[in-house]
Specification:
Keywords: Ligase. One of its GO terms (molecular function) is ATP binding. This is Isoleucine--tRNA ligase. This protein is of the alpha+beta class. The protein has two domains: about 60 residues, no CATH class; about 45 residues, no CATH class. Helices cover about 45% and strands about 15% of the residues. The strands form two sheets. A two-stranded parallel sheet has the order 1-2. A two-stranded antiparallel ribbon has the order 3-4. Helix 1 runs parallel beside helix 2.
Length: about 140
């Protein structure tokens, strides 16, 4: 059996990279549908994609068609779709803070999750004021 020879001039690397991005979006979109038990035959009004890239309308239409989505929107900020809550890790904080543990737990439920997550990503820790003491977590 003979196979045709590869003609390098017909290989479009940019097209391959773009279709890899399309495939990634479709795979993740299907995973999201599966995790929420929404069948692919049921249309969705809008899908948001947070990525380092933004695809042309042609490729965005492929994603919309594959996932049965009416509109695909690219976004840099996912704050409207995420929320963070914090709970103390008892094994770590218990021996160190003992009596303050319940106050720490209460204080953690009252912090702004997105702002605290920004501080954690920026510096690796954040400060919490509990019963007049500043605690770094």
């Amino acid at each position: 059996m003979r196979f045709p020879k590869v003609n390098e001039q017909f290989i479009d690397k940019k097209l391959e990279e773009t279709m890899d991005d399309v495939l990634d979006a479709v795979v993740i979109g299907r995973a999201c549908r599966n995790s929420t038990n929404i069948k692919n035959r049921q249309p969705i009004g809008k899908m948001f994609i947070k990525a380092d890239w933004k695809l042309d309308e042609f490729y965005t239409a492929i994603i919309a068609d594959e996932l049965n989505v009416k509109e695909v929107e690219y976004t840099d900020d996912v704050r409207a779709f995420t929320s963070y809550s914090f709970k103390p890790q008892m094994k770590t904080l218990g021996p160190k803070y003992g009596k303050l543990l319940n106050a720490i737990r209460t204080a953690l439920t009252e912090v702004d999750g997105n702002a605290t997550m920004d501080k954690l990503n920026e510096s690796g820790s954040f400060e919490l004021n509990v019963e007049g003491q500043t605690i770094e977590l």
